[in-house]
Amino acid sequence: MIRLADPNYPAQVVYGHRLADTELIVSIGSGTLARARQPERSPEWQAYVNGRDVEVVILEQHACPARARLREAELIAERRPILNRHHLQGPHRQVLRGFTKQGVRCACGAANCYGREAAEREEIGRHADCARGSENGPEDVSGPVYVLAQDFYYLDCDGDGIGCE
Question: Which of 22, 24, 49, 66 lies at a CB distance of 3.0 to 4.6 Å from 106, suitable for a disulfide?
């Protein structure tokens, strides 16, 4: 049986499946609550769960499906749940470009729509530079800046999360 650990939820969620009465999250996903509660899972998931009760834990909530998908990928890379095989090396290209699970760039209209953010980032150009001198062009970035998720423009040379130091 799959039941909710917390009955309050938003439209888009990042969820974890955990075995009841444990803290072990065995898989992470994103989508609607209905998707999180679907009992139809992969054969590997079915074999691992083996009839045991599973709880759906809402890890995060988002208005934007693409942002929820990005966070799903980041959490999988960070937590490495037993049953997730995708995103172990971080979000793949389609996720980073703001695409939904339906294969289209998100245009949900949410204030923090990741699809719109990704499209704007692509419009800036394929590579931005830290502002360092007169040879830099219109895509110069004055720092320091926080580098979140992936360092698309290679601004964070030392990998500490702060670019253009």
Answer: 66
Radius of gyration of the chain (CA): 19
Tell which residue, 49, 42, 63, has the closest CA to residue 17.
49
Cα 14–chain centre separation: 8
Angle at 154 between CA 135 and CA 137, to 5 degrees: 20
SS3 117: helix
Whats the size of the chain, residue-wise?
Answer: 165
Asked if residue 92 lies in contact with residue 50, where contact means CB atoms within 8 angstroms, the answer is no
Q: Which two tokens stand for residue 135?
A: 């040879």
Q: Label residues 51-63 b or e (16+ Cβ within 10 Å = b).
A: eeebbbbbbbbbe
Q: What is the pLDDT of residues 96-134, one digit of tens each?
A: 888 888 888 998 888 888 888 888 777 654 556 777 644
pLDDT tens, position by position, 29-81: 999 888 888 877 889 999 998 989 999 999 999 989 999 999 999 999 999 99
In angstroms, the CA 96 to CA 73 distance is 10
Instruction: Name the pTM for this structure.
Output: 0.70
